[in-house]
Design a protein that fits this description.
InterPro entries: DUF29. This is DUF29 domain-containing protein. It comes from Methylobacterium variabile. Helices cover about 70% and strands about 0% of the residues. It is mainly α. It has one domain. The longest helix has about 35 residues.
Length: about 130
């Protein structure tokens, strides 16, 4: 609180600059990780939707829609994340591919090494209840 007050007052000499910089970096990492998590949930349910059509459920479609909204909100609240959207999307897929293999029991060859849909498609492809 003292640091915020000093910053607002323009009292730069009272700032613990190193600690303040670490806090800002930590917040940025935290928001980036949240973005990765939201993309991961979108990708997980889109992969299951695509490769397990016989198991499609309303909850998958709702999850996709909900997490799309979360992505829009986090980017709206943190515009500095915009240049890192592709990085977040790609990072999410690396983990999601493994998670989807474990969850579905399908052969590894089922899921391509790179995401079968683009970030824009992940954010716009129509699903139920949207």
């Amino acid at each position: 609180m003292e640091q915020a007050a000093a910053l607002r007052a323009g009292d730069l000499s009272a700032l613990d600059r190193e600690n303040l910089a670490e806090e800002i970096e930590s917040l940025g990492r935290s928001e980036f990780n949240r973005l990765v998590s939201f993309y991961a949930l979108i990708q997980l349910h889109m992969l299951k939707w695509q490769f397990q059509p016989g198991h499609r459920s309303t909850s998958w479609a709702i999850s996709i829609a909900t997490h799309r909204q979360h992505v829009l909100e986090i980017v709206g609240d943190n515009p500095s994340l915009t240049p890192r959207l592709d990085e977040a999307f790609d990072r999410a897929y690396r983990q999601v591919r493994l998670d989807t293999l474990r969850e579905t029991g399908l052969a590894a060859a089922t899921f391509p090494a790179t995401c079968p849909f683009t970030r824009d498609e992940a954010m716009s492809r129509p699903f139920l209840y949207e």
